[in-house]
Amino acid sequence: MERVRLAAREQPGRTERDTDMRGFLPLALVVGVLAAVSVAAGGPAAAPNGITPIHGYQDWKVIAPSYRPDKDHIRLIYGNDVAARAMESGTRPFPDGTVLVKVAWSTRKNPSFPAAVEPGKFAQVEFMIKDGKKYAATGGWGFARFLGPELKPYGDAPTFVQECFGCHLPVKDNDFVFTSLARSPR
Amino acid sequence: MERVRLAAREQPGRTERDTDMRGFLPLALVVGVLAAVSVAAGGPAAAPNGITPIHGYQDWKVIAPSYRPDKDHIRLIYGNDVAARAMESGTRPFPDGTVLVKVAWSTRKNPSFPAAVEPGKFAQVEFMIKDGKKYAATGGWGFARFLGPELKPYGDAPTFVQECFGCHLPVKDNDFVFTSLARSPR
Question: N vs C: which end of chain A shows fewer Cβ within 10 Å?
């Protein structure tokens, strides 16, 4: 997937200012073709900013559940060890190496107990990866979203992260993170 | 807490049939006094069936989230390693040693993103402990519920478990467990 990231962000001979529409279409095609080749080769498809799905987060600690009636989603927010420690201690900004994972399922009523709303079909997984230098343009966070069981990358171009970042701006004072640790008596 | 359990369930000179109201009040007083002494001594109060709160489950795997609009609760169901393996493999009945923990918070809207419903105040924690011999009368499961940050035991007498068990009867075919594993692509 490194090839995809290079193609999208560090194409030789281009500068950051060279983002007019003449250059956009060929660049998008290159990214698309490389992503398709990657999928055909059996690897997971990368988001347009080069981030690929992280595996094994199901064994990480859960920071909190959430429910989104507007999306009909029920969610779990996992954190790696760096994230879990920062959540526990309240450390802000989150250290480089923090990874947060938000998994969403469509909801269903428990077949034997309809009052309980529980996970139905897997809907999407989103990642926030903290690297202050690499992702300086978006608050130090690398964003990615993958849709459905096939983990289809969300977004058509690297600029898709502006949508993610824009939504997270209201929680700038919490280092752009909405989730807080769901505490229960220890 | 062993003393409490003995007082409630194995009081010398009493048989299981000797449960008329003449005996109930003094027995309840003994249980109450012993529980109060235990709390004053710093230990957690036991449920009327002798089960005390389990600590450290926050480090266990999460089996699933759930949402209960009727109770205004958002919940996490944790499982110990035995539970997590049985959930993953679909093993039923659950092996002795299985522990499931259901933590409930009242809900709140995220202050910066009201569309998201998230945990507010801690409401209660419930335990299901599998021991086919010890809890044979209730499907092999020991039930307990503790309310609020002070973990006040739910139930006034050991018979409180009939309420738990009665509610779980519709899922007898799933070894009396409502929760199923929330799966996401690995």
Answer: C
Q: What per-residue confidence (pLDDT) applies to A26? A: 53
Measure B142 CA to nearest chain A CA, in Å.
20
Domain boundaries, chain B: 1-43, 47-174
Spell out the residues 6+ positions from residue B45 whose beta carbon is closer than 8 angstroms to its own.
Answer: B35, B38, B39, B52, B146, B151, B152, B153
* ipTM confidence: 0.78
pTM, full prediction: 0.79
Q: Which residues 6+ apart lie within 8 Å of B8 measured at CB? A: B27, B31, B48, B49, B50, B157, B158
Contact call for B186 and A107, based on CB within 8 A: no
Residue B50 exposed, middle or buried by CB count within 10 Å (0-12, 13-18, 19+): buried
The domain over range B47-174 is classified in CATH as 3.50.70.20? yes
Shortest Cα distance, chain A CAs vs residue B184, angstroms: 6
Assigned CATH topology for domain A48-174: Chalcone isomerase (3.50.70)
